[in-house]
Write a structure and sequence with these properties.
By secondary structure, the protein is of the alpha+beta class. The chain has 2 domains: 112 residues, Rossmann fold; 133 residues, Sandwich (Tumour Suppressor Smad4), CATH 2.60.200.30. It is built from 6 helices and 16 strands. Strands 1, 2, 3, 4, 5, 6, 8, 9, 13 and 16 form a 10-stranded mixed beta sheet that branches. The longest helix is centred in the N-terminal third of the chain and has 11 residues. The chain is elongated.
């Protein structure tokens, strides 16, 4: 431990570009805290305080998976500060920093040597109120016993399609590797300003996913026989919607800055997480 502390003391004397005085920490519910002892030692050594107030923080650190990162990302809408996402979950497309590397990454951040990945939010408007999603919005039927719904989609007022299905997913490039992918949607590179529309169990086999210009404002008209239709934003904000409700979505100008380990590029992450090229036969 003494050797580790000496390394931290020496590194802290190097030129500091990004000051870290306070951090906001967001954790998943069940966490192996013993893996973070060195992180808390680093906090004490460098007199970095933990704060609950995002507006007082210099950095947000999330400990968990991509779901925890979604919570952290929403906090940056209060103050435009980076998120360091430490993977203590399962899959981790975005949370790619190992717990054992968190101190090294903090040092790199202070010296401005980190890779920062900027991901764009989706701006959702529901009955005059605005919300932001990093992954997706979903319009779907209420449950297994609910009947299929019809959703008309318009882009800048131009009719796109009427989907008769269990629902539709409107995904950002970030969200294209989440729920949309499991529903058969396309993977969209995060540098593209685009949105994907993916139907959920459509009645017609010709109702396929489509990629559209993210600058176009999407609007929706929803029809349901049993009035059991729901709007879900990033899996965390839910509404039971009515036929007369107004819903629209467009790519926002707001972005979240995610500090990455830089150990793998975007395609390398896809190969690793999706196991491209691996044989299914052992």
């Amino acid at each position: 431990m003494e050797n580790k502390m000496e390394v931290l003391k020496n590194s802290s004397q190097e030129e500091i570009v990004n000051q870290i005085n306070r951090v906001k920490i967001i954790k998943k519910e069940y966490l192996e805290e013993d893996k973070l002892i060195h992180f808390y030692d680093y906090m004490k050594l460098n007199k970095i305080e933990e704060t609950e107030d995002t507006e007082k923080a210099d950095l947000i650190i999330s400990f968990g998976g991509d779901g925890t990162l979604l919570v952290a990302a929403k906090e940056t809408l209060k103050k435009d500060i980076p998120v360091m996402a430490v993977n203590m979950g399962t899959l981790g497309y975005l949370a790619d920093i190992s717990p054992k590397d968190v101190v090294e990454m903090l040092e790199k951040y202070r010296r401005n040597e980190c890779i920062v990945d900027k991901r764009t939010f989706l701006k959702v408007k529901y009955n005059e109120k605005e919300y932001h999603a990093l992954n997706d919005l979903v319009i779907s039927k209420g449950g297994i016993a609910s009947q299929m719904i019809s959703v008309e989609v318009y882009a800048d007022g131009t009719f796109v399609n009427k989907y008769r299905a269990d629902g539709i997913i409107i995904a950002t490039p970030t969200g294209s590797t989440a729920y949309s992918l499991s529903a058969g949607g396309s993977i969209v590179h995060p540098n593209l300003r685009a949105l994907s529309i993916t139907p959920l169990s459509p009645q017609s086999l010709t109702a396929r996913p489509i990629i559209i210009d993210g600058n176009e404002v999407l609007s929706f008209k929803v029809f349901s026989r049993d009035n059991d239709t729901h709007l879900n934003i990033d899996g965390r904000i839910n509404f039971r919607i009515k036929q007369e409700d107004e819903i629209s979505a467009v790519m926002s100008n707001r972005k979240v800055k995610i500090i990455r380990s830089g150990k793998s590029d975007y395609y390398g992450i896809l190969r690793e997480k999706l196991r491209w090229g691996e044989s299914s036969v052992k």
